[in-house]
Amino acid sequence: MIRAAIATVLTLLALPAHAIEIQDVTSPKGIKAWLVQDDSIPFVALDIQFKGGASMDAEGKRGATNLMTALLEEGAGKRDSTQFAQAVEDLGARMSFDVDDDTLGVSFRALSENRDQAGDLLAMALTQPRFDESAVERVRAQVQAVIRSEATDPNSIAAKELAAQAWDDHPYATSLNGTQESVAQLTRQDLVAAKNRILARDRVVVGAAGDISAEELGPLLDRILGGLPEQATAPLPDKAELQLTGGTTVIDWDSPQTVVSFAGPGIGLDDPDYFAAFVANHILGGGGFSSRLMTEVREKRGLTYGVGTVLATGLFGQSWQGGMAGGNDTTAEAVDLIRQEWGGMADGVTEKELTDAKTYLTGEYPLRFDGNGRIASILAGMQLIGFPIDYINTRNDKVEAVTAEDVSRVAKRLLDPANLRFVLVGRPEGFDATN
Amino acid sequence: MRRPTIRPALMLSSALVLGSAFSALAEMPEDVTHFTLDNGLEAVVIEDDRAPVVVQMVWYKIGAADEVPGKSGIAHYLEHLMFKGTDKLAPGELSKTVTANGGSDNAFTSWDYTAYFQRIASDRLPLVMGMEADRMANLKISDDDWQAERQVVLAERAQRIDSDPAALFNEEMNAIVFDNHPYSRPIIGWKDEIADLTREDAIDWYDTHYSPNEAILVIAGDVTPEEARRLAEENYGAIPAKGEAEPRMRPQEPTKQTERRISMTDPRVAQPRMIRSVLAPERNAGDQEKAAALTVLADLLGGSTQTSVLGRKLMLTGKALWVGASYDGLSLDPTEFTLSLVPPQGSDPAKAEAALDEAIATFLKDGVDEADLERVKTRIRAAQVYAKDSAHARAYDYGQGLATGLTVEDVNDWPDILSAVTADDVMTAAREVLGEGGGVTGWLMPEPPEEPMAKSAPPKPQTPEVQG
Description:
Chain A is built from 17 helices and eleven strands. Chain A is an alpha+beta fold. In chain A, the strands form two sheets. A six-stranded mixed β-sheet of chain A has the order 1-2-6-3-5-4. In chain A, strands 7-11-8-10-9 form a five-stranded mixed β-sheet, with helices on both faces. Chain A is globular and about 60 Å long. Chain B folds into two domains: 23-236, Cytochrome Bc1 Complex, Chain A, domain 1 (2-Layer Sandwich), CATH 3.30.830.10; 260-467, CATH 3.30.830.10. Chain B has helices at residues 7-18, 74-81, 93-100, 125-137, 146-162, 165-177, 191-195, 199-209, 225-236, 289-302, 309-315, 349-366, 370-387, 391-403, 408-419, 423-434, and strands spanning 32-36, 42-47, 53-60, 104-109, 114-121, 215-221, 260-266, 273-280, 322-327, 335-342, 440-446, 465-467. The radius of gyration of chain B is 24 Å and the shape is globular. In chain B, strand 9 and strand 10 (335-342) form a beta hairpin. In chain B, the strands form two sheets. In chain B, strands 1-2-6-3-5-4 form a six-stranded mixed β-sheet, sandwiched between helices. In chain B, strands 9-10-8-11-7-12 form a six-stranded mixed β-sheet, sandwiched between helices. Chain B is an alpha+beta fold. Chains A and B meet through helix 1, helix 2, helix 4, helix 6 and strand 10 of A and helix 1, helix 3, strand 5, helix 4 and helix 5 of B.
């Protein structure tokens, strides 16, 4: 029975992306969005992304974009923090603001019956945030608490060290939260400046899904985003060149386990071998229980609860990363295995590995589109990267076209253990001090 | 399936406009079907054809709180071993087959249940149902696998608990809050007891508890109820029940007379944090009103920084860096109502705790602000609309509800029961869980600065202290 089912996989793949129809919408004021309309549940989800993210921080103002983003929900126009949140709750609407190294994202949900009113509130938050002193001080203290927590968290310590070695003087090299000192010095003026560096119409992409037509979405876009400045006040960040060297860095941390982070050169989305690397990553460490690393490190030897890798391809730079945690006494064995599997990819993959990887990656793709919230976020993500609107119909063909030779070639080019940097946070046995 | 009614979308939105209009208890949503096979397997089907995806979940009504003393961790260890194959499936083959078909799968264990799920293209539903049914009846645990998997579980414990002071602290809190009920034990098990679990323990656990009449099947997504039922009969129908399902009787917690306090110090802690926990009733079949009042109370007290009672009184005034209230009534036996607090940096934790006590006392005296209550209810009603966006989450609601002793009707009724909560209900519940006595207050503290010598030696790292 199982064999028969696998044989039918190809029929699924042959299907088009199950009738997902993306509409390209332009508002009366010229704001663009991609929309998937579905009126089965009476609400709309918008995913609004502003390019640049926390990498838009000005020189010496590290943490400004993050603090500013956290304050967008803390009062706008005539409403203070409490009044603003009450107004959102009165409508049953939801809005949340988040920032990462690449984008400032707004996730918005509004019931069909009052979505214009909810849109007006979001517009207020984006165009007239108050940055009241009491809210600034309160959120500043919370951010500083996060920074303190990160300083005693081995995962954060490892991530910070790896980023510092990887990205030199690019914003990617440091935490978007900033430091105690940099955050302490941020003024209200800095927050207003940080907002103007990113919240502008030339930086925004919008994904929309749910109970709204293209005709209705245009005016809603203008309601929400029409009041933003045409242009941001600062250019997008430069591309970051990966500075990592091969080797092992050990950071002493008193714990029964060692956190293992590792990274090497990555690949851009515009690289002709991107999809070959995408398939290679699945086989190496992206594919959960079926990956080579999980098989060797967890399933066969029980050295970890989980190990995995990811193509960390950002808007401004890329690496190929992985991580795990394991006992101090077995970390050396695990690191050796990871290095061995990393390099072993260049020796080729089996036809079965390749087929299994492609079947998973193509079969999993349509499953992602199961809900307004998820669709809105995929649509925004595609625009952020600059994919064409028909990408969802061509994407699986690109995965299918990857050959074993392609995988070996990209592995030879990128997965060289000599270029792999390990950062170990713990008390791993058998490692000398930092080198 | 019932005839379609005007209930779902239209009624929800009009309820929102009308405010607190009380409605009769809910009918079965038109996209939900419920049936029981002859062997006792109870099934819920949630149809959602917006995407060609389906989720299958099997929930066993057995969890860590059903373990015998000395064998903590066996429920969770068996969950791991359930991926080790049958006569037809090689170790790991189930997950690999799901992955090779573009799906994903996993499992989770709690005190009250152990559950397995797959998310996959809807035309692969027969495949995953076949495999899930196979391991319900025919699990094989080979000599090669059980010891390596025990190492994996120990590594999981080391990573998730032993390397994280907050998790260790929660484990200690739990062991104090519950001293008679087995909720006192960590789900993953105590380290030394996990290390002693054997293949025989696992097989015994499986043979005793993994039976269709002690399981719930939930199918959600792009499948018709007729097709789901046919597939359920075909795959699970022939599996015999292992005797009568026994009532799940566990030692209950006696009434608490004293307040207890613990503190734990760990150099890996960045800042002090307090948790206060009090025993609270859970959701019970046909009797969810008290739990609904407690759910609304938690939201009113700590649901939002900007609008909740404690957020406004403590966070917006700078008396606390963070404060929260939490309650989850989906539990077989009585559960907890908890308050959490992080004092402002550099301040005296005792002062922040006193401010929390004062805020609670004031709330108990002043009562519920009607406008606050109305907003919480508006959020609850809107949440119902948004919840329909995820078939997976709805599957979870039914699975968890049925696994903790509720009926499908109880799960359906819950939003209306929440909407019917009055200010008086909230205050009655508040006086029970926030009044005098019976709670456990725990502080997780960073290592004190080296220089100033305390009168007594500072507590050693990771050594919990029990006072009172």
